[in-house]
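Here's what a typical entry looks like (Pentatricopeptide repeat-containing protein):
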Amino acid sequence: MTNNRRCGLLKLVSLRNASHSFSNAKPDSHLAATLTAKKSVSGFHTNIDDAVAFFIRLINEHRTPSQLELGKILMSVVNMKEYPTVIFLFAQMEFRGISPSMISLSLLINCFCRLGQMNSAFSALAKIIKMGHELNVITLTTLIKGFCINGKVREALRFHDKLISLGFQFDEVSYGTLISGLCKMGQARAAMELLQKLESYTVKPNIVMYRTIIDGLRKDGLVNEAQNLFSEMISRGIYPDVVSYNSLMHGLCCTSRLKEATQLLNDMVVKDINPDVCTYNILVNALCKERRIIEAKQVFDMLMDIGIKPDVVTYNALIYGYILTGKVDEAASLFGDMKKIGLAPCVWSYSIMINGYCKHKRLNEAVTLFKEMPQRNLVPKNFWQGGLVLMPYTILIDGFYNHGRHKTAEEVFNLLHNKGWRDVKAIDAMINGLCKD
């Protein structure tokens, strides 16, 4: 590393007021619990107790323990996601005067980033620079990812720009991390602008970057821009995969452009890209929302014919479609089929059916399903569908009051209260029912 780079980096680090020391670190309550809670006989690579014990023994028994061996142990602890433990072990190593390797310091930076301690991560970076280690793109990308996972994407971009000005170069992984961070923050357009700059950084865009931005644009409601980027990707010789197609299809379906979504499915088949269950779920769900239940069932049957097993999402979408079109018996039959083939209905599955039964005055069947939920360890919760909140308790309370069974409605509400489940919508339903009464 040149002196200019080293000075520039040290200045950058100092701007973050990174002056932490690790030499006095002690295990916190989380670490103490960890060291006593996990027991196994499978070896230190998968057991925290053995890893810590072996590490401590190495640094106590050898004046110059193998850096490679220490690095392997720290890596195994990182893989267990025991980040405070890594920080503790690193501190013990420094306390005994053992000089850390570049690998150990990089692992330490990763742990601080995972814990949201970015100032401490930059302290470790300062140590790397002062020790004269050559910085690599992996370590710098780790810091960029740390900013992103902690919701500081703008800081990640500023850090990137500063390093570029110092002559550092990043790779596809670095830019993929930045693009993903921007999209998660709802800034897909900014991610697209970054994508356009990559050629000036001598980095070639890849399928992962494109599909991340396409999905981000779709989530931001910018479906036309997602379509344009999809076309640009193909024109650049980067061929879309099933995930890319699914993202764009989802966006088109959400904007009621089913014809274009279906054309995309045909395009996949022509280009020998096998649609997956998610592809068909998108179409089934969109058709059901538009009450085109016959076409949705045809897609469902086609899915079965080509040997792709429907999942709970597929069944839920079709069941909801039947309920929307007043075909409660067909919905109930499909609900039963789901159980028969070994798929476990989720809370959403039960909510749809309970709502359907209540709307069609079949309250006893609604109660039967409601009583099944605790037996399957399913805790009722809110679901949004078509601008409405579907909550089993709320649905039942409304249903009973609307059909004159006030006492039963009160029993359901009391059950909600006794189990400690608080829901404003259920309280609203109860108040409305009492007012009507």
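Confidence is low (pLDDT under 50) at residues 22-44, 383-390.

More examples are in the samples folder.
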